[in-house]
Design brief:
Layout (H helix, E strand, L loop, with lengths): L5 H10 L18 E12 L2 E9 L9 E7 L4 E2 L3 E4 L10 E8 L4 E10 L5 E10 L5 E8 L11 E8 L2 E10 L5 E10 L2 E6 L11 E10 L2 E9 L15 E8 L4 E3 L5 E2 L7 E8 L2 E8 L15 E2 L1 E2 L3 E6 L2 E6 L13 E14 L4 E8 L5 E8 L2 E8 L4 E5 L10 E5 L5 E8 L3 E6 L4 E6 L9 E19 L4 E2 L3
Bound molecules: beta-D-fructofuranose.
Length: 485
């Protein structure tokens, strides 16, 4: 087991803030060294949001998984990220894997997967609680479940607690041990004698990948949504184009019948290249999602590895469920990042091309009344390089292309987007992280670009015929502030 020196690691993080490298984002959570992934333990406790996330402080590889921790009241001002939880014993020696948080009256608890491998490489996964202490560390406490139930493999991780009718449950990612391993989730209920496994909620999905990671169980009025990250699905023309997906089914969860009833098809939460393992907090009637900006098994695609750090978390998004579909919008707190004096209006009538300067960090709201235009390109231009969003009205598809970028992975991602007359886009353009929301949150896409030169991008909108009107607003965005920086 590696030795983790919290004091030294925290001091090193503090000494490297604010971030120096030009690929570091200004308004996305990330770390100055090591590799981060899934958001964990997302909770609201004593007036602050607590965001934990997977972190290997020792290198840019998926090993030595710890939990880092930040606090924020407003998603703009943050405490300095610190090491909170790390491998210490035989149960979690190979990683403090993902889990959730739950605020109680007098304590903030976390619930995580202890990952360990024996000498033969056999995995064991157990689920353990912990409590955040005043010194910023998580004190490890009782285990809820030591092993997966009969009929499942040790790919048994990422518990997410929820309550129904006053009772505590958790849903957890699992793999049925069948001839062809099958991804699923299991649900547990708290009883006086501990946690009882209720089994898998039946779905109509059948064999749907070999593993489901990072489930979340959400309640939207009379509906339930099961979010999960299936692995092993084939890419299709208009979806599932990343190696692994993050999406959901919405319906009605029957805990008595152990079934997800009348559920929708599986839909992805994001269509970009770099989105996985989201975690959702329900707080004061809002469902707030934070995702990992990255992708498992694709580390070679990310050139920041050579700089000693990798990946980001997405901006917080607010989810709503309408007619079986989850809409995501940037959390309203992010408006505080707008620098008022930089507000710049875009208007054009009957133009086939519109251009605008951007800032070092921009938010762009655009409404394009298509008129005669059938094909529209929205381009972020970085000198000779560019990132393109191409809307094809006839095919009703949006295509995001990184083919015009030099560094990092290229390729395209394509998805269905229905636009009648007005194409609406809402973009957050950070140094390398770009988050896009389409048609008022109907779809979203998160991705990185790694511009070769340190250039502030410009915006171009170009169509194959004059667009009736192009209107919008652009703001320069301020950076996140870290305590003491
Ligand atoms: C998802 C995941 C989780 C696991 C964690 C380990 O990205 O593989 O299933 O708990 O990452 O870092």
């Amino acid at each position: 087991m590696e030795y983790f020196d919290k004091q030294a690691i925290d001091a090193k993080v503090a000494s490297m803030l604010p971030f120096q490298h030009r690929w570091h984002n200004r308004f996305h959570l990330e770390m100055p060294f090591g590799l981060i992934n899934d958001p964990n333990g997302f909770a609201w406790y004593q007036g602050e949001y607590h965001i934990f996330f997977q972190w290997n402080p020792l290198g840019c590889v998926h090993k030595n998984k710890c939990w880092a921790h930040v606090r924020t009241r407003d998603f703009v001002h943050y405490s300095r990220p610190e090491l909170a939880l790390w491998p210490t014993d035989e149960h979690d020696k190979d990683g403090c894997y993902s889990g959730c948080g739950v605020a109680e009256r007098k304590r903030l608890r976390v619930f995580y997967t202890c990952n360990a491998k024996d000498e033969q490489g056999n995995r064991s996964s157990s689920q353990r609680f912990g409590t955040l202490q005043a010194d910023g560390t998580v004190k490890k406490e009782e285990f809820a479940v030591m092993h997966e139930p009969e009929g499942y493999t040790a790919h048994f991780r990422d518990p997410y607690l929820f309550t129904r009718h006053g009772k505590q449950y958790f849903v957890i990612g699992a793999q049925a041990d069948e001839k062809e391993p099958r991804g699923t989730v299991l649900i547990y209920r708290e009883t006086e004698d501990g946690w009882e496994c209720l089994g898998e909620p039946a779905t109509r999905l059948g064999q749907f990948g070999y593993m489901w990671e990072c489930p979340n169980l959400l309640h939207f009025g009379p509906f339930d949504a099961l979010i999960f990250c299936p692995q092993g699905l084939e890419a299709r023309d208009y979806d599932r184009q990343n190696v692994y997906q993050a999406g959901y089914i919405a319906g009605h969860l029957s805990l008595d019948g152990m079934a997800m009833l009348q559920h929708t098809k599986f839909q992805e939460l994001d269509h970009g290249f770099d989105f996985y393992a989201p975690q959702v907090l329900n707080h004061e009637g809002r469902h707030i999602l934070i995702g990992w900006m990255g992708m498992p098994d694709r580390d070679d695609d990310y050139p920041t590895r050579e700089e000693g750090w990798m990946y980001s978390l997405t901006l917080p998004r607010e989810l709503t469920l309408r007619q079986g579909h989850i809409y995501s919008q940037p959390a309203r707190e992010l408006r505080a990042l707008r620098i008022a004096e930089t507000e710049n209006t875009v208007t054009a009538d009957s133009a086939a091309r519109v251009e605008s300067d951007l800032s070092d960090g921009s938010e762009i709201l655009l409404n394009i009344k298509l008129g005669e235009a059938q094909n529209v390109d929205l381009r972020l231009r970085y000198g000779l390089e560019h990132l393109t969003f191409h809307y094809d009205r006839h095919a009703q598809t949006m295509t995001i292309s990184r083919e015009g970028m030099k560094n990092g992975a290229r390729g395209v991602r394509r998805f269905r987007l229905y636009v009648d007359e007005m194409l609406s886009m809402h973009l957050f353009v950070d140094k390398t992280a770009v988050e896009a929301f389409f048609q008022h949150g109907e779809e979203a896409a998160s991705l990185f670009v790694f511009p070769e030169k340190d250039i502030v991008p410009s915006l171009e909108v170009e169509a194959d015929a004059p667009m009736e009107t192009v209107t919008g607003t652009i703001w320069q965005l301020d950076a996140f502030r870290y305590e003491g920086c």
